[in-house]
Amino acid sequence: MSWFAIALIGPFLYALTNHTDKILLEKYFKEGGVGTIILFSSLLSALALPFLFLADTTVLNVSGINILVLAVVGILNVLVLWCYLLAIKNDEASVAVVFYQLVPVFGCILGYLILGEILTQMQLIAMAMIILGSTVISFEIDSENKLKLRRKTIPPMLASAFFWALGSVLFKAAAIKENLWRSLFWEHLMLMLVGMGIFIFMRSHRTTFLLAIRDNPKATLSINVANESMYILGNIAFAVAYLRAPIGLVLITESFQPIFVLAIGIFLTIYFPKISVEKIQAKHIWPKIIAIGLTGIGTYLLLAS
Hints:
The protein is mainly α.
């Protein structure tokens, strides 16, 4: 299987988790939802550890410097999730994820600065197209048909995209020196430890987390386990692709995530409105389509370069 096909698994699974996160915030975790989901996500990273250990029983033979690098990756993963959840708490998932198209832009720049990867003129043009597409979705038409800047969505999503790109570059730097399974093991271990730290030292998040489990244990645990499993599988797919192609090209496959998110959102709105509803009127959906189209052009230019 080609690196491109493997990388596409990631955005599809992430699209499913985007809608699941939105449903959790709206229906299950109305109070303290961001911190609760982060705790579930980080603590459930422990589910991957036994499988990663079985994949490579030498996972403990990692250099100290790379353990430190992967610890930073784990922290960056939490920051990615935190910023993203703040954004979708106030906006639609299909809007927020378009800003992830800036991940490959940041990734190309960081890959150039940290890994010495080369940026061609065509890649620079493609990056400009992606930025243009992200700019289109930065505005919305409100109920009075006035153009409005998405002030609560743009800053956290820009931060989330940057943290994602930086984490990906650092992960590849460590994985090249170690191997895929060792790097994934330590990344998830550090993510779990960050979650334990939040649980122990941040009382408000611990309280809402425990209340969520107490009030609706079966639904809460089953949905979060399924959600985290999809996220972990998406991470693994991306990690495999990172080692097969330049990081900027792998990250550009993230431009397919909004397509998946929008398609799933329309499907749920039409057929399962009790589960999730998005704005699919013309004035709301056309900016999304235009933004996805522009980033799609950027994708083609990057892949063709």
